[in-house]
């Protein structure tokens, strides 16, 4: 990362000028635009392998998260030369998304007030073949976090019995993501059907604990196993992405062995994450998974 300040108070990161770095984005913690930009610049080597050349949806909060935020998925004006358009058709509809190739693109997103970054589960090079399967475990407000930990372990074991290894992430909100890296050789319909079958299996085994339908009225006291993110145009919060929530917590990947010590899905700050990343070596591009959806 290269960083420098100029006479106007702007910040230069990865060759991109970040204006108004002192602008407060979260009143709680007095988190500034410059701090978010510096965080993303430092986290970029770890974050980019899973988001480059993937269509993105952004949550932009140019005036701060306590003010008006809005989602954006198409390039539009003013996002910078390193933010690229991607157009595709599905079921007779045409969609336009944006994507980035490198750290310069990431910095241009931040310069325009992006806080959250949500990638698709497929790259623009193989848009019909997802490279990950994701379960979003979303607890009702009254469900304790310890119950969510048990649900994540339950899901992991069910996937293991089918020969699949999964990654874990606390979302920076209230839930966790259990993600299976895939070889990008199975179509969306196959991936979603498999995810739906696993969710249904969990609901059948413990209907008092789990639900797999979108009806909020029926979620009281339960964990919603959201498998609906495994489809065209669906996105999920990126690994290491900042959340547009009080204090700007981070969606942080964690090791399964760490789960027992985690107290909250939103406990990691940008400083926490950067401290952990300082002890690690960035990956050399994304390691391609060989995992595929089981034939049965």
Count of discrete alpha- or pi-helical segments spanning 4 or more residues:
5
For the termini, the CA-CA separation is 46 Å
Number of strands: 16
Low-confidence stretches: none
Order of helices and strands: EEEEEHEEEEHEEHEEHEEEH
Gyration radius over CA: 19 Å
Q: Major sheet, described briefly?
A: 6 strands, mixed
CATH C-level label of the domain at 3-128? Alpha Beta
Approximately what portion of the residues adopt beta-strand conformation?
15-25%
In the CATH hierarchy, what is the superfamily of the domain at 3-128? Answer: DNA primase, PRIM domain
Mean pLDDT: 94
Helix/sheet category:
alpha+beta
Q: Order of strands across the widest beta sheet?
A: 14-15-11-13-12-16
Categorize the overall geometry.
Answer: globular
What level of helicity do the residues show? 10-25%
Write up this protein.
By secondary structure, this protein is of the alpha+beta class. The chain has a domain at 3-128: DNA primase, PRIM domain (Alpha-Beta Complex). Helices cover 22% and strands 24% of the residues. Helix 1 packs antiparallel against helix 2 and helix 1 packs parallel to helix 5. The mean pLDDT is 94.
